[in-house]
Write a structure and sequence with these properties.
The protein is α+β, with helices and mostly antiparallel strands. The protein has 2 domains: 127 residues, D-amino Acid Aminotransferase, Chain A, domain 1; 140 residues, Alpha-Beta Barrel (D-amino Acid Aminotransferase, Chain A, domain 2). 25% of the residues lie in helices and 28% in strands. The strands form 2 sheets. Strands 8, 9, 10, 11, 12, 13, 14, 15 and 16 form a 9-stranded mixed β-sheet that branches. Strands 1, 2, 3, 4, 5, 6, 7 and 17 form an 8-stranded antiparallel β-sheet that branches. The longest helix has 15 residues. The protein is globular and about 55 Å long. The relative contact order is 0.16. The protein binds 4'-deoxy-4'-aminopyridoxal-5'-phosphate (PMP). The site of 4'-deoxy-4'-aminopyridoxal-5'-phosphate has 14 residues, from helix 5.
Length: 315
Amino acid sequence: MELDDLIVYHAGDFKPYPEAKLGLLTHAFNYGTGCFEGIRAFWSDDAAELYVFEPTAHYRRLAASAKVLLMDLPFAADQLAELTAELCRRNGFRTDVYIRPVLYKSEETFGVRLDDLEHDLSIVAFPNNKYLDSNEGVKACVSTWRRLDDNAEPARAKITGSYVNSALAKSEARLNGFDEAIMLTDDGHVSESSAANLFVARDGTVSTPAVAHNLLEGITRRLVAQIIARELGVPVVERTIDRTELYSADEVIMCGTGVGIAWLRSLDHRIIGTGAAGPLAATVARVYDDVTRGRDSRFGCELRAVHGTPALALT
Ligand code: PMP
């Protein structure tokens, strides 16, 4: 993919990627004062159509993140969902796509604060289908870096600067020979991985860390909980989870827009379950693929068709 060939949305207009520039004193560049989303669009061979997955839910979450940073979205979530489909249409994508909207403090100025600053929205979309190579299962470790606390920098808001916390954990893991890091809260309970939520199957039950454990309330997490309840007949319990519960789990799965559905082969050199993909991972991955590619509408997810809808006129 050549970045220069992309059409992006920036400062209220569609334009070629090379024309979307930011100045060196842009506040968000200096202080991490932006918030963002990761959205996917999935190509369906059957329908010969590209579907943007749950865009309105993502823009609603962006609005909630923006509120924490004293910003607001330039349009309603539903209009931004349509704008995103239009961006994919203008790029002529006919493959899986990753979409990155960023709402950021755009003022070129100096001084740490959130109030009294201009902000702007950019959206970049590019062909992409893999974030983590996870067919053989993920080799994870528990990070020595603790998850950001809600009272320090809320993980519930998807703040650009907060991703240094994830990056510290992820690079520590990679440099020590692992694929991924799992972070604990400051009081030592399981939170999430660097960019995905977790589900733990143990003795016929499935649990996931409760939202008060400093995690991003994932849009995939919500769908996965519904899939588990419906397909496996097991309600998901949100609770406090200890590190060693993961060691003795039958299965641990990770889920998120980037990773999709992945399963842990090992954690801290302990094999999880049999060390192979178990029934939870297999079922959730199969149904998730059907839902995101428009073959299963039982979960009421929003799939916004890119090519089969009329072009959007910008006002
Ligand atoms: N946690 C973190 C820290 C993330 O960055 C992501 C990816 N957005 C997730 C969880 C999963 O969230 P979602 O399913 O909404 O992509």
